[in-house]
Specification:
The protein is built from eight helices and four strands, in the order αβαβαααβαβαα. The chain is an alpha/beta fold. The longest helix has 23 residues. The N and C termini lie far apart (about 35 Å).
Length: about 180
């Protein structure tokens, strides 16, 4: 399916995307499936775009490899790069919005909640939902699937909750639930 520039523009202008995160097993899948049933929301489940954003953050903005950012900085500011990344993501996920005649998209990946400031830098209009389920239930669920042992699950859940709290504080409470 090819789309015209006007179609892409409609998707970008009509969307206030919803970014959903939470520790694996917290209920993010149930939430995205529920949102997908809404007449105006297209739900995307684990697109792995968070991996792309993390790599870009590590290599473009955190200076792990100074050679690439040094050359890139000759031509573009960090804000321009992040805005372009946001347009790219919105274009990818917005196509289904146009096809289904809906108004916005939602994306869920478990660790989105640990990168809220990066998502916000790329997509300023985004709304964020961090699903926090009782850690005992999350750990029991993860153990039943063989994801981890009890103590490892508890430590990972606590770490994720602490990191997501720091990220949410950086948003100043705006557009975060």
């Amino acid at each position: 399916m090819s789309s015209s520039p006007a179609t892409n523009k409609i998707a970008i202008n009509c969307t206030d995307p919803i970014i959903i995160g939470g520790y694996p097993g917290s209920g993010t899948t149930m939430l995205i499936l529920t949102l997908n049933q809404h007449k105006n929301i297209v739900g995307h489940k684990e697109t792995q775009l968070i991996r792309v954003l993390r790599i870009l953050d590590d290599y473009l903005f955190c200076q792990k490899n100074d050679t690439f950012p040094r050359y890139l900085k000759r031509y573009f500011s960090q804000e321009e790069i992040k805005r372009s990344i946001g347009v790219f993501i919105d274009d990818l996920l917005g196509k289904k919005v146009v096809v289904e005649g809906k108004r916005r998209w939602a994306e869920k990946s478990p660790h989105n909640c640990n990168f809220l400031t990066l998502w916000k830098a790329c997509i300023p209009k985004a709304k964020f939902i961090n699903v926090i389920r009782d850690g005992r239930d999350v750990v029991c669920s993860g153990m039943s699937y063989g994801y981890f042992k009890f103590e490892d699950g508890i430590k990972a859940w606590i770490k994720t909750i602490e990191e997501s709290k720091k990220e949410s504080m950086s948003l100043g409470g705006k557009n975060y639930c």
